[in-house]
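Form 12-C: Joint structure prediction
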Amino acid sequence: MKDFLLFLPLTIAYLALKSTVLSGFPLPDVTLIIVFYMAHRKAAVDGALAAFALGYLDDAMSGGVLGASSFSLVIIFAAVHLLSKVVQFTTPAIRGGGVFAASVLKGALAYYILRAAGLDALFQPGMVLEAAVSGLLAPAVFALLQKTADLATPRKFKDNEN
Amino acid sequence: MRGSERNFYSFLKRHQLVLISAVLAVFSLHLALTDRKEYERGYLLKEALSYALTPVQETLLGAEAIAEGVWSDYVLLVGVNRENSELKNAVSVLEEENNRLREEIMRDARLRAVLGYRDALPFSTTGAAVTGFNVERWTRTIVVNKGLSDGIGKDHAVIAPQGIVGRTLDVHDGSSRVLLMTDARSNIDVIVQRTRVKGVAEGNGTDALVLKYVRVIDDVQVGDKVVTSGISGIFPKGLVVGEVTKIEKARDNFFNHIEVRPAVDIKRLEEVLVLSERPRMAE
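Section 2 - Result
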């Protein structure tokens, strides 16, 4: 829950910037990277709830189909959690590759949801490019998230234990 | 507790994360598949977000202008020697003023065009400024700074002098979200102006529209103008939607696959007109 409360203002700021001054810029999918970060680090039930909430927020703020992003993010959260039992997302390259794959998966899931909802959505190969941007910038965003999490974690001093 | 019950609880505990994820995914899927019919869902959250986000969006747009001013007025001048500093400062101030005046002139021209267009319309409209853009993969919306308090309601047509922009989707007290006609959820009853062939212009998440239900035998050519038919009850009859840019025979050999380029360039849109009331059905 602490991670969610920490990253919620970050997500809101990102979504607000994306719809105003940074509209039209190729931005990494910060919401997805946050979910990926929470899933591979220490996945818990509140992480799944956070993935749902962040997805819902993304849909509500962008005026999209409510539920489309939350569905994709919850699935990605569960998939990354299961995958992290066999793959160690420790190096920037593996994290970047993981975010790239997750971003493509998110796009594909959103596409099939819209088709299932009866919308004539056209499959957009451009989403691979967006996924590449997310994958490339993911290590930097991961570092930022880690720094934010560290700032909010109280430090333990070994000297006091004796 | 019997062994089977213990196994069951142990199974639930071991897989609680995946099970809860599955429940949330099914709930999300339910929301997504019924969202199209029930736009009112999530009203409270959207209302709260509207109150929180609109001032943030306006502030961010203002901050961008200030940052640009700071950059051109101060940061670029750091390091310039004293002899040139006054002169360069004066030039910078004049350039800034010139730029501001040019912006004013362009804004004035845009507003004149919008006002002239508004005066010529046979129905009442409200002018609004665009405060936010959301261009996602398949969903495209904008936010305008007028809402319920300005007499705007849900499903009101949003237009520009060049043609149709979209319709209001979520209306709040001081702002509204507009569903652009290129959004995958948008469909507008239209007619081809030259031959009066009817069809439906649907968004598909790209910058183009798809003109549907036009038969192979119907007379439609590249370059034909497409206008609203007035049948839907949202858009008045005769407003420009776009121009036919591509015609292909569809797989079923019965309907054509026709692409339409929207008349309004959304990326350049700064001011729009919102119809104050829904038009009467076309006669």
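Section 3 - Comments
The domain at 2-141 of chain A is CATH 1.10.1760 (Arp2/3 complex 21 kDa subunit ARPC3). Chain A has a mean pLDDT of 83.
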